[in-house]
Target: N-acetyltransferase domain-containing protein
Amino acid sequence: MTFWKSFFYNKKYNTINNSYTKSIHKQNILIIKNLNNKGNIFDIYLNINNEINLYDLEKLCDSVGWVKRPIKKVKIAIDNSFLIACLFYNNNNNNKELIGFARATSDESFNATIWDVVVHPEFQSKGLGKLLMSQIIKELRYYDISTITLFADPQVIKFYKHLGFIVDPDGVKGMFWYPL
Model:
């Protein structure tokens, strides 16, 4: 439970315009300095906003074997997300190389669902998935969103359990409708 306690803190309330101040603005934050990955050293940055190169995202999703989705629909999903989080490093040409991604949708009050959590295979098992998840949860908690859900494939349930997620204790099963 200690893991979760770090996410419950007071956000900054602006009494002038009755709004909450966003915790992480559209900036690149150095989150890991000198990550050693197979003898190469990388500075890993975090960016939380709704701006992403869709072709870089497609390349990242391809790297883990996800089914290709139409770019036009991915753009709509990104545009309608409450927040997105990206992990990247700057390559030798000083271009961003996307290595991690997650997004969340929300009613902006009570509930949020985390979607599309992905870390490039060459950067997996380095704590980046945990870091990405902790940052997105921290941002959601900043908005006082207390119910955070996600859908997990069987092979990653253990990963999410280590982050404090639980399989629904009431045995309620999600229901889905798909067109025929």
Notes: The chain has one domain: 26-171. Residues 1-24 have pLDDT under 50 and may be disordered.
